[in-house]
Design brief:
Keywords: Signal. It contains two helices and eight strands. By secondary structure, the protein is an alpha+beta fold. It has a domain at about 50-140.
């Protein structure tokens, strides 16, 4: 007589563990839109068909730089943009796939500190230990 309980128990464990993993998320991008979420007039960062303007959310202002986040229409990509208040300074932006709870995208450019967008619940301790500064639950910047 064969014992079929072990394969069944193994499958049940696999399904339970798979159910425990959460999809990465940036809850700030799911909040209702308001006036503050609009990019400054004349600035288009992402192609509308890839990253709808309606998905852009203002996240935080720090040292005269405004940080925005956005999501792709299918919710599989997330983006960050850093726009200096000084209209003559260059802005930076980038996007990447939302695959797991991790650093999503890192951007840098002349005149703007290096910026990291991360998913909710990302453990920033190592970045903070390396001199990064959290300015929002989903953004850290390099120390100037």
């Amino acid at each position: 007589m064969k014992n079929h309980h072990i394969p069944t128990a193994t499958l049940a464990t696999v399904f339970l563990l798979a159910g425990c993993t959460s999809a990465p998320n940036i809850s700030a991008l799911d909040s209702p839109a308001n006036e503050q979420d609009q990019l400054p007039a004349g600035i288009t960062i992402w192609p509308e068909e890839e990253i709808p303007a309606s998905s852009v959310r203002f996240l935080v202002e720090h040292n005269e730089i405004r940080y925005f986040g956005a999501k792709s229409a299918d919710g599989k990509r997330a983006c960050v943009a850093a726009l200096p208040e000084d209209g003559n300074a260059s802005w930076i932006a980038g996007c990447s796939d939302l695959r797991d709870d991790r650093e999503i995208v890192r951007v840098s450019g002349t005149g703007v500190v290096e910026t990291v967008l991360m998913s909710d619940g990302f453990d920033v301790d190592k970045l903070v230990g390396d001199g990064w500064k959290p300015i929002h639950k989903n953004i850290v910047i390099s120390a100037p």
